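In the laboratory, one determines a bound structure by crystallizing the protein with its ligand and collecting diffraction data. In a computational setting the workflow is compressed into a single prediction: the sequence and the ligand go in, and a structural description comes out. We illustrate the idea with uracil.
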Amino acid sequence: MDKNVEWKKLIEEIMSCSKCPLHRSRRNPVPGEGRVDADIMFIGEAPGVREDETGRPFVGAAGKLLTELIESIGLKRGDVYITNIVKCRPPGNRDPRDEEIDTCLPYLLRQIRLIEPKVIVALGRHAGRVLYSLAGLRWANMSVLHGRVYDVVVEGVRVKLVATYHPAAALYNPRLRDSLVGDFKNSILKAIRESRESVSRKQTTLVDFFK
Ligand code: URA
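The predicted complex, in structure-token form:
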């Protein structure tokens, strides 16, 4: 199937999903937004109240910080793809339950297969735990693992995986905020640069081959 057709079908399925109880309390599902051919995917936990109202990811206070962080490394929100592990808001902003994550995960996996990002940034421990498990890595905790860059394969896609603190956790904690800013300026930027260099190196090698 054509990728655009597959994408459209996927978003339609998310918009009409009733596979888990979260569909009963949601106002809008939040599939994600950004470039469908983005090199970088940011993956959070689940929509909050503002996201539920608008159907867009990361548009509340945490989203404002995420946008600033993305811009701090010379990108725009529109350059990347932003989504969540779970596409509907858990009531009262509680953590998503394991069975909700398991039910929703196939949507994220299809998004990863279609976007084929070069870098995945997992925002917060829930996203970190799920992405590490998909990559066959052992999750410990964020204070140990944040900012580490791993070359892994997720759903058949070779990516650089970085976990960092959730912007919401950093809003009222200056120490976490410093770590988050540092991860963007150092490891996330480095991962993006390296993924671009490896593409241009591959292209050079191909040009040399055909000389
Ligand atoms: N927190 C998240 O994890 N995702 C959002 O979209 C908003 C807040």
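The longest helix spans residues 174-210. Keep in mind that any predicted model is a hypothesis to be tested, not a measurement.
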